[in-house]
Amino acid sequence: MASWAAGLLLVPLVAAAQQKVPAAKKLYCWNQDGQRICADALPPEAVTAEREEISVASGLRTGQVQRALTPEERAAQAEEEARRRTEAAAEETRRRTDQAMLTSFQNEDELRRVFAERVTLVENSIKTARYNITSLREGLVTLLRTAGEHELGGRKVPDKLAGDIRERHAQLLYNQALQRSFERQRAALDVEIEQTLQRYRALKSGQAPDAGATAAAPAGGVPPRQ
Known about the structure:
Elements: H1 2-19, E1 26-32, E2 35-39, E3 51-55, E4 61-65, H2 71-99, H3 101-104, H4 108-152, H5 159-204, H6 211-214
Antiparallel strand pairs: 1-2, 1-3, 3-4
Helix pairs in contact: 2-4, 4-5
């Protein structure tokens, strides 16, 4: 009994000792203005920066956090996702059309409805690209005006401002190329719809479709993001 009671008395002592064990400390290391900085706490300006986490006890890296995306990068990411959805929808439509041309559609109107989603996706992508181009152009004009005021005033254009101008210009060129690509896709889609309808009509009539009617329409490549 005495041994059992002594064990009970040790339980709260062990628990208290465990509570006093300090949490593992770590250092945060990031680059700022070309210099590597390490600290045991992140200042507000470094919260969104890419950084490494290092254990104080072992000196080993325990983690890495990527920097937060800029609004422009998030917009480009969304644009890329829209492109992938458009291409996936195109592939799915072609697969469905080839496998179930006759059994799935009673008439041409039903067949046209299959393409409606693709048409909407491409047209929405064109509208988004046009909106982005307008916004980027207006922002670029503002930046160039600010740079011009610096030069007219005999002052050096700040490096950050010059960098923003280059980045905004690159984004503008990319979105212009993206718009042209979507417009090519839209024109190619009209050709594909007509070719599919011709094939459908030929199959319904029991005739072999013409080679020209079954040829794949060019989809118009999307430029890679620089």
